[in-house]
Each structure stands twice: as C-alpha cells, then as structure tokens.
Write a structure and sequence with these properties.
0% strand
Length: 205
C-alpha cells in the first residue's frame, strides 16, 4: 500500500532533523508528487538542497514555491541566498531588496545584502545595510565585523578597531574578527597587541 502524504511528511521531517539530508530530500520529493500544493514542502526541500551545496537545484525549487505563493518570505530569502551562493551577486541584491520590501526589519536579510554589496564594491550601500542590521540587532557580531572591514578599507583604523573589538566581546571565538583586530592594531602601530591578536587568531583557527 503506498505511503500516505501524512506519513511521508512525518518521515521527511524526522530524517531532516536527524541530519539524513539526502534521504529527507528524496522523501520530500515523494510528498510533493502527491501534494504539489503544499508550498512548505518545497521550501524544506530547497533548504536541504542549499545545505548540501546544490544551489542551482535549490534555486529552482524556491522558484517553484514562489510560483505557488509569491509572498512567502522564507522562499524569497532562500532564493536570494541561492543566487548569492552561485556568484550571481547583482541578482542576489535585487532578491534581498525584495525580501526587505516585504519586511524592512529583517536583520539577516540586511546583513546578507550588506555582504553582497560589499563583495560588489558598493561600500556606501553596504555600510547602510550593516548599520540598519545593527540598529535592529545590536548583538550581531558578524555585522560588527563586516562594518569594521568597511572602516578598515577606508583607512579608518580607530573605527575599525572599535567594530572588531565589539564583535569579539559578543563572540570571543570569532576567528575573522580576531585576525582583523590584529590587522587594525598593526595599522595603528600597536605591534605587541597586534602580535597577540594574530597568535590568538591562529589558536582559534
């Protein structure tokens, strides 16, 4: 007797929670074949595909989900992430802006938008995105670190140092922030402190 949609859903969720990604994806596909109207199944499948690095496949499934429900924020955000992971940065920027058009108070989308703009060399816009993310979520260590790198690239060593230090207060084991702290200290001529920061970064790595 064929499995019911309900049993397939339960099985897929259980496999996903236990980290059995490939098996979970296969069962979600079986479920979708029986219940193509359940958009959450496509989002879960796309998330699994993204987690395994199958970003092009994930993009296709996110688009299927959005064809069923255009205002689904999880699918919009996932699509933006999949585009970015494929190096399609300008498309990703547009997709993140679409997410933020739905919910401007989304610190994760603001951070990812800022990181993508930073990779495109659009530093002023990246600065705005990181600042908005931190206004919403002050304890967002990666945003402090990336904001610090923008200051660093502008030769604003003191401001960069403040950002890296704040990132490390929030997340002491943050390798990138520790290494960046060392770079800022070195630029400021605080060589003994810079060496200590680099040594700690190596230990963390």
């Amino acid at each position: 007797m064929p499995a019911s949609p309900e049993s397939l859903w339960s099985q897929a969720v259980a496999l996903q929670r236990s980290g059995r990604t490939a098996e979970a994806a296969a069962v979600y596909r079986q479920f979708i074949a029986l219940r193509p109207d359940v958009v959450e199944a496509r989002v879960n499948l796309a998330n699994l595909l993204s987690a395994t690095g199958a970003h092009a496949d994930a993009e296709a499934v996110y688009r299927e989900a959005l064809a069923l429900r255009r205002d689904l924020p999880e699918a919009r955000f996932g699509l933006a992430n999949a585009l970015r992971a494929q190096g399609r940065l300008e498309e990703a920027v547009a997709a993140y802006r679409a997410v933020l058009g739905q919910n401007p108070a989304n610190p994760a989308a603001l951070y990812n938008l800022g990181s993508t703009l930073q990779a495109l060399g659009q530093q002023d816009q990246a600065f705005t995105a990181f600042s908005r993310a931190l206004a919403l979520k002050p304890a967002f260590a990666p945003a402090h670190n990336n904001l610090g790198m923008l200051h660093y690239d502008r030769a604003e060593w003191d401001k960069a140092l403040v950002c890296f230090s704040q990132a490390l207060r929030l997340q002491p084991g943050f390798f990138k922030a520790r290494n960046n702290l060392g770079m800022a200290l070195h630029k400021l001529g605080r060589l003994t402190e810079a060496e200590a920061a680099f040594r700690e970064a190596l230990r963390l790595k």
